[in-house]
Specification:
By secondary structure, the chain is an alpha+beta fold. Helices cover 33% and strands 33% of the residues. The protein has 11 helices and 14 strands. β8 and β9 form a beta hairpin. α7 crosses α9. The protein is elongated.
Length: 330
């Protein structure tokens, strides 16, 4: 019997790792699908790793990388995707996203199929690699401690974090991303504006009063809403939004900017010309750079890709261009 070729031996040595949130997905069906796809591709049996309360994904991903996984698949909500991305970033090992959560924000911005898990599983073995940006931020706590966390979509301080905290889990299960509207409405009555001092790249330090500040890697939300007009996931730039309405009318101006200008007019060349000729709204300010450092006057709630991470007095965010490799359908 002839010896197997070196290329066949190489294929047999490769294996995938699946990191999944058992609360968000049907673990049995997903495991079976990944095992079957591995065998069809001629790869070895995959590693199958569940997330836990203690380990939302970083530890499982590091275990898969240490074992030599050739690709990591992730299935869960935006928080699970963020945790796995944080661990796999900068390694060159590709990540495959199986959309399984409420928002699926990174998958939306990558224009991945949201309801075809089999297609994304196939992409892990036969898709193409795409290098995209990932954000990192140093979070400064009131006690002086500093932590680094990653974000693949956006990190925020203020109202957006309060909205996440006030969104009901049972509503998310029943109504999906629409549940966040209720969380935002209830947060508006409890969150007060705060003073923020910020600096984009090496420009002058500025200060303003705001309800929320966002550091974004990409800007598309569900329902076709483009939160940040120029955000792109592979441009090497950090997009920033500072929301600073002074009244309920100011919030209407924010909504008009985000929905009408960014999400409707901004989709056409004529619409972009109209935006360029307008004076814009003072209720929301958009900035762009490689990094932004910010300090707030009092501890404020923070969130990273929908994960509540307590309160902070400062956040220094930056973008690492091409720091994350993802598999997309060929």
């Amino acid at each position: 019997m002839p010896a197997p070729s070196s290329s066949a031996a190489e294929r047999d040595d490769r294996f995938a790792a699946l990191v999944y949130n058992p609360v968000k997905v049907d673990g049995a069906d997903l495991r079976s699908a990944v095992i079957a796809a591995s065998h069809r591709a001629g790869w070895s049996s995959p590693m199958l790793l569940e997330t836990t309360v203690e380990d939302p994904g970083q530890g499982a991903t590091r275990a898969a990388l240490d074992a030599g996984a050739s690709v990591v698949l992730v299935a869960g909500g935006d928080g699970t995707v963020r945790a796995v991305s944080e661990a796999i970033a900068r390694t060159g090992t590709p990540l495959t996203i199986i959309p399984s959560g409420t928002g699926n924000l990174l998958a939306r911005n990558l224009q991945l199929p949201l309801s075809e898990p089999e297609r994304m599983i196939r992409a892990a073995f036969s898709g193409r690699r795409r290098a995209v940006d990932i954000g990192f931020a140093n979070v400064k706590r009131a006690d002086g401690s500093v932590e680094e966390h990653a974000f693949v979509v956006m990190a925020g301080i203020g109202l957006d974090a309060a909205m996440i905290r006030n969104t009901r889990d049972d509503w998310k299960k029943s109504f999906g991303w629409v549940a966040y509207i209720d969380g935002a409405a209830r947060s508006l009555t409890t969150v007060s504006p705060f003073r923020v001092m910020f600096q984009v790249d090496d420009e002058h330090i500025l200060t303003t009063r705001a309800h929320s500040v966002l550091w974004a890697n990409c800007g598309q939300l569900p329902a076709g809403i483009q939160l940040l007009p120029e955000a792109a996931i592979d441009d090497g730039l950090l997009d920033v939004a500072i929301f600073r309405p002074r009244s309920w009318w100011g919030w209407l101006a924010v909504w008009r900017t985000v929905w009408w200008q960014n999400s409707v007019l901004g989709r056409t060349r004529t619409g972009r010309r109209v935006i360029a000729m307008s004076r814009g709204s003072k209720a929301v300010k958009f900035l762009q750079g490689a990094r932004m450092d910010a300090a707030v006057s009092s501890p404020q709630p923070i969130e990273f890709d929908g994960d509540e991470l307590g309160e902070a007095v400062g956040l220094d965010g930056r973008i690492e261009q091409g720091g994350l490799v993802v598999m997309v359908p060929a």
